[in-house]
Design goal:
Shape: globular
Radius of gyration: 10 Å
Structural class: mainly alpha
Helix content: 55-70%
Length: 65
């Protein structure tokens, strides 16, 4: 799964900021920023939270090209 695209789609669908998403994922704003920009890979715990949010809000998972 391409987490950077997934997070961007999730934020766009929910119309929230990176700060708001960070609070939902229980991580820092800087972490969300790095993940969205593809600079870091999320931890397993964060991957699970992202997956759960995508399911809850029906955001389709995008695979890396």
């Amino acid at each position: 799964m391409d987490y950077s695209k997934c997070l961007k789609c999730l934020r766009e669908k929910l119309i929230i900021s990176q700060k708001d998403l960070a609070e939902m994922l229980e991580v820092s704003f800087a972490t969300v920023n790095r993940l969205e920009n593809g600079h870091h890979e999320p931890s397993l715990k964060t991957k699970r939270k992202i997956r759960d949010l995508c399911k809850k809000y029906k955001v389709k998972k995008k695979k890396k090209d």
